[in-house]
Each structure stands twice: as structure tokens, then as C-alpha cells.
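[Discussion] Sanity-checking designs against the backbone

I'm trying to build intuition for which residues belong where. Below is a C-alpha cell string of 118 positions. I'd appreciate it if someone posts a full sequence so I can compare it with mine line by line.
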């Protein structure tokens, strides 16, 4: 047989409180979904920032290496110019000495020919 339940005042208060909690729980956002979304967004932002940092560091390093290469090329060009100038001086000196030697030999030959004729 069925018993007729006559709920008491405390039973009705408890039932009303439970119903109110259930209604409020329906409207609350699910904490796991919100937390995952926030964590994912934060993680994505951090990954983007890290990618930007890495790109900036690589760009700076590329500029440094290009600048160093340009400085090295300028230094080598200057060194080659100096070597070319020294080589030109040496060549000029050799030609001048050769001309002086030939001139001295021709003068000597003239002197000898003057003495042998006379």
C-alpha cells in the first residue's frame, strides 16, 4: 500500500533549497570547459609571443652576421688595395732599376768604345 506522505516544514525547506540549487547549477558555466578555453587561449598567446621573440632574435642575428660579413668584405677589399699598391710600387721600382742598369751599361759601353777608338 501506498503511504501518504505528509511532508513536514523541514522537508519542504530542504526540497525547495535543492530545487533552487538545481536551477542555479543549470545557469552556471561548466568550470572545466571555461578553464580549458582560457588555458588554450593563454597557451596560444604565449606560443605566439614566443614565436615573435624567436623571429626577432633570428632577425637580429641575421643583421649582425650581414654587418659582420660586410665589414669583413670591406677589410679584405682594403687589404687587397694595399697589396695592389705595394705590388705597383715594387713593379715601378724594378722597372726604374732596370732602366738605370741599362743606362749605366750603355754609358759604360760608350766610354769603353770611346777609349778603344781613341
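Best answer:
Here's mine. Compare freely.
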Amino acid at each position: 500500500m501506498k503511504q501518504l506522505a505528509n511532508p513536514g516544514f523541514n522537508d519542504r525547506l530542504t526540497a525547495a533549497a535543492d530545487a533552487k540549487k538545481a536551477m542555479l547549477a543549470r545557469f552556471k558555466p561548466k568550470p572545466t570547459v571555461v578553464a580549458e578555453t582560457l588555458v588554450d587561449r593563454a597557451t596560444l598567446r604565449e606560443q605566439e609571443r614566443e614565436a615573435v621573440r624567436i623571429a626577432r632574435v633570428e632577425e637580429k642575428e641575421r643583421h649582425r652576421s650581414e654587418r659582420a660579413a660586410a665589414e669583413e668584405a670591406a677589410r679584405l677589399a682594403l687589404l687587397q688595395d694595399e697589396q695592389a699598391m705595394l705590388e705597383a710600387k715594387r713593379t715601378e721600382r724594378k722597372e726604374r732599376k732596370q732602366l738605370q742598369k741599362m743606362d749605366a751599361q750603355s754609358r759604360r759601353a760608350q766610354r769603353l768604345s770611346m777609349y778603344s777608338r781613341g
